[in-house]
Amino acid sequence: MISKTKWTMLFMLLTVCCAEVDLKLSTNAEKFENGILITLRKQFHLTCNLTSTEGDKIGVEWLLNSQLVIADKRIHIYHGNNTLLVTNAQEFDCGVYTCRANASGVDLNETVLVQSKPFVHPSFKAVSSMNKIEGEKMRINCTAEGLPKPQIHWLKDGVNVADLNDTRYTLDGNQTALVLNVVDLEQGDQANYTCVATSSTGVVTETIYIYVKDKLAALWPFLGIVVEVTILCVIIFIYEKRRAKQEEEESDTEQNPETKNMNEKENVRQRK
Length: 272
Known about the structure:
alpha+beta, Immunoglobulin-like, six-stranded mixed β-sheet, 3 helices, 19 strands, Ig-like_dom_sf, immunoglobulin domain, transmembrane helix, Ig-like domain-containing protein
C-alpha cells in the first residue's frame, strides 16, 4: 500500500511532468531555420508561458548564451507574463536565449536561437550623392554588424571593385569594416558606389552616387558673378553718360532770352 507521503511525491512529479513550456515569438521577428531573425536597431520580444497542471503560474528567468539577462534601459523583463522585451537591438543581443523555470525542484527550460540580418553603417548614411573635383582623393567607408558575421564588398556601377584593373582603387580593412580609397579622381570615376553586406541571413546594400567635376568647375560661379557685375557696370556707365548729355542739351535749350541775345550780339561783334 502506498503511503500518503509517497502519493504526495507522485502527485508533484506528475505535476512537473505535465507542465508545458510555451515560447511565443514576437510578431516583428520572423522564423528562420531553427530560431528567429531580428532586425538590429529595432525591438523584439520573447514570451515564455510555463503553467502547471493546476493552472498556477510559475516564474521564469532569462539567459543569453548561458548568462543571466539583467534588465536595464533597453532590456525589460515583465514577470507578470514572463516576457523579455529588447529595444534598440544590438549585435550582442543575438545568441541563444533560454527561458528557465524551477517547478517542484525540477529545472525546466526552453531555448531559441536569435540571429539578425546584416546591418550596415556607411560613412554616407545621411546623403545620396557627393561632389568631388578631378584630381582629388575619395575615401568612403562601410562597417557591418550581425549574427552570423556579415562580409562586405564594394561595387562600382555593379562591378566588384576588387576586380577592377585600376591601381588608383584600394581597399583597407576586414570583412566587417572596409574602406574604399580612390586617388587622382577622373571623370570616369563618376558612378554609383555600393556597400554590400552579405551573410546567411540576407543581403543589405547602401549606395551613393559620386559626381566628379572639372577642376575649373569651382571657378564658374565666380566668373559668372564677375561677368554679371561687368555688364551691370557697363549699363550704368552708358545710362549715366546719356543722361548727362541729355541734361546738357536741355540746359542749353532752357537759357533765358536776355542771355541768348547777349550771346548773339557778342557773336556779331566778333564777326565784324
